[in-house]
Amino acid sequence: MSPTDARPIGETPRIPLHDGDRLDCGPAWGVLRVLEVPGHSHGHIALWDEARRLLFSGDTWFGGDVVGSHSPKHAAALYASVDRLRALQPAVLCPGHGPIVFEGEIDL
Predict the structure, then answer these.
(1) CA–CA gap between residue 101 and residue 67 (Å, rounded)
(2) DSSP annotation of 95
(3) Given strand 45-49, what is the order of strands in its sheet?
(4) pLDDT tens-digit profile of 77-100?
(5) Were both Cys, which of 1, 11, 56, 93 would link to 7 (CB 3.0–4.6 Å)?
């Protein structure tokens, strides 16, 4: 995926992303693995840089807390997603909102 493939919010993505896909972001960022983390919203993803143990959690976790689900029936999926992210044991967590959190301060 290149920057020219990006679209404004609200449009259908040109390249659908699926669990396990790998995005080569070049030498500065390396490879990010797509993780499907449903629960907060349908189709929600996180991005994981295994080499750096760097996690972009999106809205699954931010501001020091787990984000609620848009629907009570999706709460189980949300907590399963949080468990999946917790198991990665990130060294750096970049949440959807709020400051970047570093190892030792991460409370997933």
Answers:
(1) 16
(2) E
(3) 22-24, 31-36, 45-49, 54-58, 92-95, 101-102
(4) 888 888 999 999 999 999 888 889
(5) 11
